[in-house]
Specification:
By secondary structure, this protein is mainly alpha-helical. The protein folds into 4 domains: 2-82, Serine Threonine Protein Phosphatase 5, Tetratricopeptide repeat, CATH 1.25.40; 95-147; 166-193; 196-239, no CATH class. It contains 8 helices and no strands. It has helices at 2-12, 17-30, 33-75, 90-93, 97-154, 166-192, 197-212, 230-238. It is elongated and about 135 Å long. Residues 137-168 are annotated as: Disordered.
C-alpha cells in the first residue's frame, strides 16, 4: 500500500522529493535495496534542487525589497535646481502617513547603528593598537636592559680581577690537590723517621742551601760553618 501510494504521488508530481523518499522507504522495507538506493538518490537530488530554488527566490525577494526601499529614499530627496520641494511618487503617496514615518524612523535607526558600529570598531582598533604598542615598548625596554647588563658584565674593571675561566679553575684545583698530596706524603715520611731524623733533614737542607749560595753570601747564613763538609754534620749527629 505504501509503495502504491508513493508511486501515485510521483505520477502526480514527479518533482516532489517526498514522494521519492516514501517510495525509497517502501522499497527498503521490501528488501529491494538497489531500487531503494536509486529512489533515495533521486529524493536527495530533488530536495537539494528545491532548497536551492527556495533560497534563490528568497534572495531575489530581499533584493527587490531592498531596491524598492532605496528607490523610495532617493525619490524623496529634494529636487536640485527647482523649488526645493520633495519629489513624490505613486507608491509613496499611496501609503499611509504612519508607514512613511515608520520607514523614516527605521532609516534613521539604521544610520545610527552604522555610526555606532563604526565608532565601536574604531575604539576596538585603537585599543588593540595600544596593546600592541605597549607590548612592543616593553619588549624593546627588556632588550635594552639585557644589552646594558651584558655590556656592564663585559666591561673590565681595574679593581676586580678578570673572571676565572673553567680551564684556569680546573688547573688551580689540580695544583692544590697535588700540593696537598705532596704535603701528606712529606708528613707520612716524617712520621716514619726516627725522632732525631727531622732535625738531621733540616740541617742537610740548610747545608745544601748554604752551598747553593754564592761565596760572598755564605758567611752571612746562620749555617756558615756547615760548608766545611758533611763530616761535621755526622759528628754532630753522633754526639
Amino acid at each position: 500500500g505504501a509503495l502504491r501510494a508513493s508511486e501515485a504521488c510521483i505520477r502526480l508530481d514527479p518533482q516532489w522529493h517526498e514522494g521519492h523518499a516514501c517510495r525509497a522507504r517502501a522499497l527498503n522495507g521490501r528488501g529491494a535495496f538497489r531500487l531503494a538506493a536509486e529512489a533515495f538518490e533521486a529524493a536527495f537530488r530533488l530536495g537539494v534542487a528545491e532548497g536551492v530554488a527556495g533560497a534563490r527566490a528568497q534572495h531575489y525577494k530581499e533584493e527587490a525589497s531592498r531596491a524598492r526601499a532605496r528607490f523610495d529614499t532617493q525619490a524623496s530627496l529634494l529636487a536640485p535646481g527647482k523649488e526645493r520641494r520633495p519629489l513624490t511618487v505613486s507608491n509613496e503617496s499611496a501609503e499611509p502617513d504612519h508607514r512613511l514615518e515608520a520607514r523614516r524612523v527605521a532609516e534613521e535607526g539604521r544610520c545610527e547603528r552604522v555610526e555606532a558600529a563604526g565608532r565601536a570598531r574604531a575604539e576596538v582598533e585603537a585599543a588593540r593598537q595600544q596593546r600592541v604598542d605597549t607590548r612592543a615598548g616593553a619588549r624593546l625596554a627588556s632588550v635594552a636592559t639585557h644589552a646594558a647588563q651584558a655590556r656592564e658584565r663585559a666591561r673590565p674593571t681595574s679593581a676586580a680581577p678578570p673572571p676565572e675561566t673553567k680551564e684556569a679553575c680546573r688547573r688551580r684545583l689540580r695544583l692544590e690537590e697535588l700540593a696537598a698530596e705532596a704535603a701528606r706524603k712529606r708528613q707520612g715520611a716524617r712520621s716514619e723517621l726516627p725522632p732525631w731524623a727531622p732535625a738531621t733533614v733540616d740541617l742537610i737542607r740548610a747545608d745544601v742551601g748554604a752551598r747553593r749560595l754564592p761565596p760572598a753570601n755564605r758567611a752571612s747564613t746562620p749555617y756558615s760553618h756547615v760548608h766545611a763538609g758533611p763530616q761535621w754534620l755526622w759528628s754532630e749527629v753522633a754526639r
